[in-house]
């Protein structure tokens, strides 16, 4: 069963608690939290305080996507704030293996993220060490962008590697996922779908989640 991870980037921040409760009630699997630093990406969003605030109000997995330079500087803070998964961009950390070890040292699952132009080759040697691989299907930085279809072959490649190696990392995709693109991603091998505007951009969040799920034919 494919997991759905609504991204709160597109939520109404004036009532964030209600937004999280609503998607939990609508059977979301993860809450996806986009952390941006204005350096790695041209946007600034939220930090550990927001995760700390959300932690007590949901039992869903807090899936934290760090779009920050040198994420190793903040792993401890995000772990203490209550993150369940911390994903770092391969493009943002010099010592990726050490950063993964650091994440695990706090008892948190570690993910690695690939920008649309970054090949799987860049993470080949850490695949046995990570719990999740996140394939960006838009350039990171903003919600509501269009799905980049050339990334689909990368999802397929990753699925094939997973099959060949029998490693058990999850394959997550992020960016431009909607009822129009979800099935394409799942057919290619996606196991977790992040959706921001396709969920929180709709008046009825529950109907939006149902629509995405019903578009998947697996
Ligand atoms: O990481 C990011 C953007 O950098 C995402 O998680 C977005 O928040 C997804 O938004 P939509 O493309 O689904 O609107
Ligand atoms: Fe994200």
Automatic annotation (TrEMBL):
InterPro entries: Aldolase_TIM, Ribul_P_3_epim, Ribul_P_3_epim-like, RibuloseP-bd_barrel. A divalent metal cation binds at residues 32, 34, 65, 174. The active site is at residues 34, 174. Keywords: Carbohydrate metabolism, Isomerase, Metal-binding. Its EC number is 5.1.3.1. It catalyses: D-ribulose 5-phosphate = D-xylulose 5-phosphate. Pathway: Carbohydrate degradation. PROSITE patterns: RIBUL_P_3_EPIMER_1, RIBUL_P_3_EPIMER_2. CDD domains: RPE. GO terms for molecular function: D-ribulose-phosphate 3-epimerase activity. It comes from the Bacteria. Binds 1 divalent metal cation per subunit. SUPFAM superfamilies: Ribulose-phoshate binding barrel. Substrate binds at residues 7, 65, 141-144, 174-176, 196-197. Belongs to the ribulose-phosphate 3-epimerase family. Catalyzes the reversible epimerization of D-ribulose 5-phosphate to D-xylulose 5-phosphate. PANTHER family: RIBULOSE-5-PHOSPHATE-3-EPIMERASE (PTHR11749). HAMAP family: RPE (MF_02227). This is Ribulose-phosphate 3-epimerase. It comes from Jeotgalibacillus marinus. The gene is rpe.
């Amino acid at each position: 069963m494919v997991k759905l991870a609504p991204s709160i980037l597109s939520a109404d921040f004036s009532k964030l608690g209600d937004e999280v409760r609503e998607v939990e009630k609508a059977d979301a699997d993860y809450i996806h939290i986009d952390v941006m630093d204005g350096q790695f990406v041209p946007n600034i969003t939220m930090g550990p305080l927001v995760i700390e605030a959300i932690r007590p109000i949901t039992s869903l997995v807090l899936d934290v996507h760090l779009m920050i330079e040198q994420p190793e500087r903040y792993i401890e803070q995000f772990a203490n704030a209550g993150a369940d998964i911390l994903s770092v961009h391969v493009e943002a950390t010099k010592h990726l293996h050490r950063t993964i070890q650091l994440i695990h040292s706090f008892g948190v699952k570690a993910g690695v993220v690939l920008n649309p132009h970054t090949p799987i080759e860049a993470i080949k040697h850490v695949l046995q060490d990570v719990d999740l691989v996140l394939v960006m299907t838009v350039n990171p930085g903003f919600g509501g962008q269009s799905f980049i279809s050339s990334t689909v072959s990368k999802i397929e490649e990753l699925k094939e590697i997973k099959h060949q190696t029998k490693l058990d990392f999850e394959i997550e995709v992020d960016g431009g996922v909607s009822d129009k693109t979800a099935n394409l991603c799942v057919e290619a091998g996606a196991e977790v779908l992040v959706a921001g505007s396709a969920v929180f951009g709709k008046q009825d969040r529950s109907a939006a989640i149902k629509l995405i799920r019903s578009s998947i034919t697996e």
